[in-house]
Design goal:
Length: about 450
Amino acid sequence: MFQRDVYNSLENWKNSDGRKPLLLRGARQVGKTTVVNDWSKTFKQYIYLNLEILEDVSPFENFTNMENLIKEIFFLKKQQIQLKSETLLFIDEIQESERAIGLLRYFYEQYPEIPVIAAGSLLESLFDTHTSFPVGRVEYMAVKPCSFKEFLGAIGEERLQEFLKIAPLPNYVHEELVKHFRTFAIIGGMPEIVKKYAEKRDFTVLKPRFDSLIQGYLDDVEKYASSEAQARVIRYCIENVLLNAGKRITFEGFGKGKYRSREIGEALRVLEKAMLIQLVYPQLKNTLPFEQDSRKSPRLQFLDTGILSYYNGLQLKLLGTNQLDSVYEGLIVEHLVGQEILTTSKSILHKLHFWVREKSDTSAEVDYIFERNGTLWPVEVKSGAVGKLRSLFQYMKTAENRKAIRFYNGPYSEQTVEMFGDAPFELINLPWYLAGSLGNEFWEFD
């Protein structure tokens, strides 16, 4: 059970007042089914329904009333009816039955004592369609690739997890975490990949699994596309997203291909709905609330950095250096920091943000801006001299919060930075491996 953060979120859901059926959302192969199967061991009874199986879907298709539905489900799985949160009901591949999706509301209204979780490998394809989701009668939770903290647990380094709460660290601990974070940049956080690496500690055995993941996403295209023509565009976009993740893009001429802006935009939005990518649009001001400008070029964030490292042939380069920002113009480590920031929340609404200033006389771009306790924090992902952080200087000229964060290849430190006659600000320098700790309450940055 190495996806500990997910289990904690599930426990919080189980024990919450007014608990509603939970819809797990996330891309294929992020471990939704596996995590529920593992967590189910904490219950006296576990009922698993896979609605791709005709026998399992029949109780929903033959529905007359909730009492009979409950009786039929328990009878089908040869279980005694036990309520009072002693039985976990997991409805997998729920996208196969629109009737089952609609019936989730009645579990909340008539049988709230039964914890009900639903998920599906292609559930995302039903959003924004004619399918009626029981709004206000279900909760949502995002399942994402493993965080660095969870990766440490998977490889048996639980002792190092606790050090992610401490700063500054002894040098020997810092070096150990840097080494493991480099490995994390190479293999990423997809559960199947992490599990196999934890078993074998061998990068070479991961190749067929990376190939299978990528091919699986390509094979799913027809299930998301509305036509064969759109399927071709989506398939083209997947391949070129893997080549351009971490970069700002334009829809017109994306990947130097023949497709027009409208076709690319529609295809990328399908991939975003499938939770394979985020189109991260810039924010032009340095105050809350977030107001992304969709007229500007977005930056591409892909599901998992390990897949990018593999697809772009960067694993050996990453293996041979501790200077992660020296590889691929720093895009891999910047992308990985973004991936770690995303793990700080299980909300499906949690998005990345970055700041730009685009004027004829000067331009600037801060890698990320992050909200914490109602305060906006600029985040740069760069090593080297502080004087190179010119975009951050532009941001801080008018920023209300006089503190900024930099992730780099060194240890924890703080320094006061003078800005060419402007008001000074405090720069908190953090090692790469602490990116997933930004949202944790034990960090008292404020």
